[in-house]
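Researcher: Here's the sequence for the chain we discussed earlier.
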Amino acid sequence: METLILIVFLGGVAFVLKSRDQRRRIALLGSHLGNYEIEKLMEKLTDGYMRCLGEPNAERQAQIWSMLSTTELDLSAQFNRFATGFSRVGEVDARVSKIPLALPLANTLFPTATFDVRKAFAIHAKGIADAAANTLDQPPKAKAFMMSAELFLMQHTCHWFCKSKIVASARMMARHQTSYQLALESVAPATREAYRRLVGENPHG
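Model: Thanks. This is the structure I predict for it:
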């Protein structure tokens, strides 16, 4: 009985510590994102892509692609400013556990199993900017597909920072019907290589 009580007590303490850390991270990220319309622009883009791909009239489709290009550039500029602002956050507050499950004090107990989310946001900022500028000279449909992947991966990083990798992946699947691995495989090669190196993933894993 005493052992059971101890287990329950420790479980309760762990839950409180985990919840407190997650609330702190959500508040920190929200205080920076709240200055921008990044999520609103993301929704506008994804809805616009679907509408454009379903447009049978070629002339009208070209007009929609042109309007979406302006939104892409606006989103890129806003996210770049966000990443620049978040880069001033202290290193301790910017560490993210690579352990899939959310564990209390994981960053303190396993400091080598973490990555710096400030660097991840910098990677996303460049990937989104390159996609908006179409540096790979892709046709509109392919460009939209890559931009979507860049945005989904960026959103995944935000949820990973606030909660855990498992929660982030589940949310992306539920919201976008896209797996983490598919998003990672669909971003630009430069984004994929830099991101995998940062989070310590095996490209063949």
